[in-house]
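Budget justification aside, the reviewers requested a transparent look at the raw inputs and outputs of the sequence design task funded under Objective 1. We therefore reproduce one unedited record. The lines immediately below are the C-alpha cells for a 111-residue chain.
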C-alpha cells in the first residue's frame, strides 16, 4: 500500500528530517483489528519517529497521523508502518550522496 510520500527533506543539527504526508485520498490502516478506511476524523499533532542513523545523525520521520473511526474499535489513530519508508530512506541517502537537490529527490519518493 503506497499511501504516504515525502514532501520535505531537511538536514538539521539534530539529524535528518523527512516530512511525510498522505498521498491523495488513500485508505488508511488503523487500530488492532487491521481494518482499512478512507474516512478520517481529523489529525493528531505532528510527531517524529526516529529511525536509522547516517554519519552519526539519526533520521526522523515527521508526520501528523490521522484519526479514523473503526466500527468495532471506535476512534483510533491511524496505524503507520514506516518499514517501507526506511527502505526508501536508504535509497534516498544514495541519491543525496550524488548531490541531487533535496526537492528534486523528494518529488520522486512515493512511499
Ligand atoms: Zn477496529
Amino acid at each position: 500500500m503506497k499511501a504516504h510520500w515525502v514532501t520535505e527533506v531537511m538536514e538539521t543539527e539534530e539529524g535528518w528530517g523527512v516530512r511525510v504526508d498522505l498521498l491523495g485520498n488513500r485508505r488508511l490502516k488503523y487500530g488492532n483489528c487491521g481494518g482499512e478506511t478512507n474516512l478520517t476524523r481529523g489529525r493528531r499533532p505532528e510527531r517524529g519517529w526516529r529511525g536509522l542513523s547516517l554519519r552519526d545523525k539519526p533520521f526522523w520521520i515527521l508526520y501528523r497521523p490521522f484519526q479514523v473511526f473503526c466500527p468495532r474499535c471506535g476512534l483510533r489513530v491511524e496505524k503507520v508502518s514506516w518499514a517501507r519508508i526506511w527502505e526508501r530512506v536508504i535509497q534516498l541517502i544514495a541519491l543525496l550522496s550524488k548531490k541531487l537537490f533535496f526537492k528534486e529527490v523528494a518529488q520522486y519518493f512515493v512511499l
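The longest strand covers residues 4-12. The pocket of zinc ion is lined by residues 31, 33, 35, 70, 72-73 (CB under 6 Å). Computational costs for records of this kind are itemized in the attached budget.
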